[in-house]
Amino acid sequence: MDGYSRAQIRLPQRTGQDISITYLDASPAHERAANRITINSAGDEVVSHDRYADRPLNVRLMNSMLPLHAGSYFGTIGKVLMMIASIAMPLFTITGWMLYLNRRRHKSEAHHAMETAQAIRTVHHNEPVLIAYATQSGYAESLAWHTANVLLQHGQPVTVKSLGDMVPEDLSQYRNALLLISTFGDGEPPTDAEAFAEAMAQSAALAPLRYGLLALGDREYEQYCAFGRAVDTWLQKSGATHLFESIELDGEDAAALELWYHQVSSHVEVEEK
Q1: Number of other residues whose CB lies within 10 A of the CB of residue 124
Q2: Which of 15, 41, 49, 50 is the most exposed place for a label (fewest CB within 10 A)?
Q3: pLDDT tens, 166-223?
Q4: How many beta carbons lie within 10 A of that of residue 261, not counting itself?
Q5: Are 247 and 259 in contact (CB under 8 A)?
Q6: CB neighbours of 42 closer than 8 A, spacing ≥ 6?
Q7: What does the alpha-carbon distance between residue 183 and residue 134 come to, in Å, rounded to a whole number?
């Protein structure tokens, strides 16, 4: 026993019982990395010396459950990281709940806007304008139905669809389209638009199509509005042309939304002349 930081001696409880010494090295791996020396009852012979460092890995891990969960198994850095993780756990609960409430709010707004749109009857003979959306949280869907209401109030019929229910060739059936495209995660398409995104590997024949595009994103992410931009580029390569320059929406930026609705309204007025 070359050096130790802490030791505990267990004396014999009856005649002939061995003496047991449990100790930690001077610089132990963690607080449970204990060694054990067994000395015969006479105190003149070491019966066994069980060192923590000499035990098989699986035995060391089984004896280190508490340090592993506390982070001390990995030293001071492990303790700090575990402390940060412990502090963050309530934050994950809070942020998860906030995301749920936000998604629920967007779904409710979309449902209300859809009911409003369905209550409006148009007698205009224009071809319907396609309003297509790709959404993860429901926000793009909500804005799509609000956009539909703007057009319906001008007497312009609309068709509202999720991009997940379409294939690229479906766009060729329309002369005018408005697309509201969210980006999910690190530049990925929303889950409901993954199949459409894969089909964009090839261009389509969309020369008659004119479109406006609202790309939804969050500037905190490096790939800001990446999927919306990808759809815009693909539409241009497929021969479609802009009704107006694409607009990028950072979060729920009111100025960008106002510009979107202004451009939509201006487009309708042009169509009616």
Answers
A1: 15
A2: 15
A3: 999 999 999 999 999 999 988 999 998 999 999 999 888 998 899 999 999 988 888 9
A4: 15
A5: yes
A6: none
A7: 8
